[in-house]
Amino acid sequence: MDIEELRTFVEVADAGGVTAAALRLGISKSIVSRRLARLEADLGIQLLARTTRGAALTEAGMTFRDHAAKVCAEIDIARETILPEGELRGSFRVAAPLTFGPTHFAPVLAELARLNPRLQVRSCYTDRFVDLIAEGFDCAIRVGHLTSSNLLARRVGQTPAVYAAAPAYIARHGAPETPEEFGAHEVVMQGNETWLAIDGDEVIPLKPHGRFKADNAVALVAAALAGIGVAGLPTELVTDHLASGALVPVMTRYPPPILGVYVVRPPGQHPARKVRVLTEMMIEHCRNL
């Protein structure tokens, strides 16, 4: 077996079929099929079960996929180590938030691809915190407050946040102005997260509760505008609504802390050069925003 056979298998496994993998790799379906056949012949075991909808991993294929992805990643790192200068190459999988990603971070990834024609950029936009290790991502761009984990993080920028509610909500329930009052109010939220409020040098944890939850901040803006509850949001998402009066700041004496923008990666002694390059580009990009 060779490295291209392993890369092709990983792409087929991730794409869910030969056709989609061929499009990702920029090669014909026949080449993909031949590489898969050689790999299965070398291993003496079936990795993929062909179906009318594409290809599904066998039990052996699911196990082998993770090992194959790690081998491909190690080869990319080895190449970068012996070729520290010049353009980047290989595959680069990046996760970014759906809320800010397409508008704020996609231009950075596009510029990275333009500067490095041999780099295959695979970006995934979701507000779900992907498992970088289990899902085979090189790194992720995240906005907010990081929780404790074994991931390594580099802060590349920041963005302010605000607590706000619609005038209709305030007319019915009043506006919370202290952490004590906050506990009696409905909020719109992503999950069961803890919110934070700043009181001088003290950070006060808040335990929000509400009946409206969404995994995307844009959806939470819509719910706040409808008067369902108090929202805690990046200020940039609601600047126009604050200016028009459609949303009103609350808890102004106890604002949320500044949100960090981070590049996070799986643990390892040295980050891959493509992660380092993206990190530096993100720092410059955030500085200019």
What is the fold's blueprint, element by element?
Layout: H1 3-15, H2 18-25, H3 29-43, E1 48-51, E2 54-57, H4 59-82, E3 90-96, H5 101-115, E4 119-125, E5 139-144, E6 152-159, E7 161-165, H6 167-173, H7 179-182, E8 186-189, E9 195-199, E10 202-206, E11 209-213, H8 217-225, E12 231-234, H9 235-244, E13 248-249, E14 259-265, H10 273-288
Parallel strand pairs: 3-4, 3-5, 8-11
Antiparallel strand pairs: 1-2, 5-14, 6-14, 7-12, 7-13, 9-10
Helix pairs in contact: 1-2, 1-3, 1-4, 2-3, 5-10
Structure description:
The chain has 289 residues and is α/β, with parallel strands linked by helices. The chain is 42% helix and 25% strand. It has ten helices and 14 strands. Strands 4-3-5-14-6 form a five-stranded mixed beta sheet, with helices on one face. A three-stranded antiparallel beta sheet has the order 12-7-13. The chain has a two-stranded antiparallel ribbon with strand order 1-2. The longest helix has 24 residues, at 59-82. The N and C termini lie far apart (47 Å). Keywords: DNA-binding, Transcription, Transcription regulation. One of its GO terms (biological process) is DNA-templated transcription. Belongs to the LysR transcriptional regulatory family. GO terms for molecular function: DNA-binding transcription factor activity; sequence-specific DNA binding.
Shape: elongated
What proportion strand? 25-35%
Radius of gyration based on Cα positions: 23 Å
CATH superfamily of the largest domain: Periplasmic binding protein-like II
Helical amount among residues, as a percent range?
A: 40-55%
Counted by DSSP, the helix tally is 10
Largest sheet: 5 strands, mixed
- What is the averaged pLDDT score? 89
Give the low-confidence spans. Answer: none
CATH classification class of the largest domain: Alpha Beta
Pfam families: HTH_1, LysR_substrate
Protein name: LysR family transcriptional regulator
InterPro entries: LysR-type_TF_proteobact-type, LysR_HTH_N, LysR_subst-bd, WH-like_DNA-bd_sf, WH_DNA-bd_sf
Family: Belongs to the LysR transcriptional regulatory family.
